[in-house]
């Protein structure tokens, strides 16, 4: 959807210099070996928010970031997600402010002009260089939690042939990261929740046994839990079944269903951070921060204005700068819900990554999933030709290993919004500024 931030608040870590985050098995861990759920120093509450006040880059206005951070801290955000950024801009002010507040950030690598197309798919040098520029800019920040190579590229069954291009982008960006000697910042993907393509897409992006080609984490944009609801009736049991012992961290990269005028009670947060989901899910990102046309936001910067007015602070009929004001009761409902959640993680020293299971690459189905097995990934500058060749055989049961030492390393929607989400032990937020 929009640019998102994943703010992650660690108790006692609001003085800057947050520990870096890595993946190990199907969990996030900080550099101290603590599982990252996103709240507290040792026990994190996965809570995040989508943050994209401005369509092109919400991380360039330091004073605005500080205003939003104050309210995010009150809410309990520990991580935010940003959908689009300008790699040429100066982000030091905002990134340092988030770091000092104990908030992590995840960033999409694509732009409005470089995302992977769902039809006539390709992965070319222009895209690679654009993604690389974003990585070069943000890799310096310790509170950078991860990168996304795409968001909701596949939204229909007849678009699933683009999956190998998503995987190729992940392969090449991981190779670029390692060739530059950068730290192993996780690189993943966020998907539309399409029942007909579950669990094929998540399995495909992590199958094949080649660690250099698979994504490092998987985010699901799911709106199945609508207030009022229960775990059994929500559809979450099916999502949990598909996530059990998943080989990489999986989390709700967007959540916060709205079906009518009733306020959101956020009961799904209790489910995500308790048994059985807490063992397999890494939290959730709430959609969203800023209140705009879709009416999902939990803060506003003033009443709606004439859509004909377009200024530096106004876009699409809504002001996107100033003092954020909570929209009630959604804001306080979420604040209360998050404050009551205290999940306990598993220290890295006690976690056995061999418990997770790499799935077989899914076979194609009539009128459904279009990629037949472990096909050869497209090379750079390759365009979809209508079919894929089989990939060389790789052990599909290869177990994930800890992140290598750094020394060993040689579609975006034009909307302005803020998402709030939680990832196991972490809070994610996306903001459009």
Question: Would you kindly provide a written description of the structure presented here, covering whatever features stand out?
Answer:
Residues 343-372 are annotated as: Disordered. Its main location: membrane. InterPro entries: GH, Glucanosyltransferase. It is found in: Cell membrane. This protein is of the alpha/beta class and 433 residues long. Strands 1, 4, 5, 6, 8, 9, 10, 11, 12, 18 and 19 form an eleven-stranded mixed β-sheet that branches. The chain has helices at 62-75, 92-100, 125-138, 163-179, 200-204, 231-234, 236-243, 267-272, 330-339, and strands at 6-7, 21-24, 27-30, 47-49, 79-82, 104-108, 122-123, 144-151, 187-192, 218-221, 250-255, 281-287, 299-300, 314-315, 318-319, 325-326, 382-383, 419-423, 426-430. 20% of the residues lie in helices and 17% in strands. It has nine helices and 19 strands. Helix 3 packs across helix 4. A hairpin with a 2-residue loop joins strand 14 (314-315) and strand 15. It is globular. It has one domain (6-430): Glycosidases (TIM Barrel, Alpha-Beta Barrel), CATH 3.20.20.80. Mean pLDDT is 84; it is low at 1-15, 39-47 and 392-433.
